[in-house]
Amino acid sequence: MSAAPNEPVVAAPPLxxxxxxxxxxxxxxxxxxxxxxxHAVNGVSFDLERDQTLAIVGESGSGKSVxxxxxxxxxxxxxxxxxxxxxxxxxxxxxxxxxxxxxxxxNKMAMIFxxxxxxLHPFYTVGKQLVEAIRVHQEVSKxxxxxxxxxxxxxxxxxAPAKRVDDYPHxxxxxxxxxxxxxxxxxxxxxxxxxxxxxTALDVTVQAQILELIKDLQREFHTAIIVITHDLGVVAExxxxxxxxxxxxxxxxxxxxxxxxxPEMPYTLGxxxxxxxxxxxxxxxxxxxxxxxxxxxxxxxxCVFRPRxxxxxxxxxxxxxxxxxxxxxxxxxxxxxxxxxxxxxxxxNTVEFxxxxxxxxxxxxxxxxxxxx
Length: 373
Description:
The chain has 14 helices and 12 strands. The protein is an alpha/beta fold and 373 residues long. The strands form 2 sheets. An 8-stranded mixed β-sheet has the order 6-7-8-3-9-10-12-11, sandwiched between helices. It has a 4-stranded antiparallel β-sheet with strand order 2-1-4-5, covered by helices on one side. The longest helix is centred in the middle third of the chain and has 18 residues, at 204-221. It starts with 21 loop residues before the first strand and ends in a 5-residue tail after the last helix. 42% of the residues are buried.
């Protein structure tokens, strides 16, 4: 982890090695620019097992998508430096050769991109694109591949798949194009699926259908899934584990119950306060996080979130200004938080904040209710 000039460096306990299906350790991605290096991802570590879903949450520019692209081997090594490890089913994806990554991509690991219209080729029918994805990794005839394509379109809920297989992407609605992208990602039964903002620009009904589809297909294929999103509703709907990113780093991580119902990092609380609630009056105002996300080219010294943190005065002295906090375990120990505030005070802040959010009295029972926030 890089430190700001004159900033005290405190050794952080490294995350132990893991035998998880996907184990990411100290992943870092740096882009050189004329103005200096941009640390888009800095020291990211997490584990994911098969049949689990991990949500990576944060504002735009927090490093979510770059993390997923580094895992998929989509970062141009000539234009960026990628360090750390990402061990997938025994193979380190960071040090793997281009040929090894190509053999895995679309076969054992696949990605659903944010914009299906720009991800699908406009000059080819969806059927031809699905057939190509099949035949790259399977030794089957064109007719057999087309039959697989029609079957997969049917399984992802495309009506009249035998007809739609010959449609071009522009002939499909946004929701149907997203289903085609899911079909293409799952056509070779991958073990790892990364979904980058899979419900962006879809209406709420289609969003619910897409999320339910992903969960159904996960149960069928026993897939490990990473969902990149800024939508906390998506997090609550599909995730087992959550990673919250800010300024290219993880600032909080844990199970869905730990992070969603018992958050401790002020940034996570801020994200929750920015979400509209169905149990509040329509005239109720949201509580946005003050300020703007930091520039990854020029991160502030000390705690990166300090300029926007409403609880910074709870840390004595200038510690938040000069010392970068490390990702440390809280209770339970799998729940990690990057914050200088004392754990008991963090939990007190959480109780008070969630109480205001839900219109409940500020007691310890508030954080323990498990009510959706």
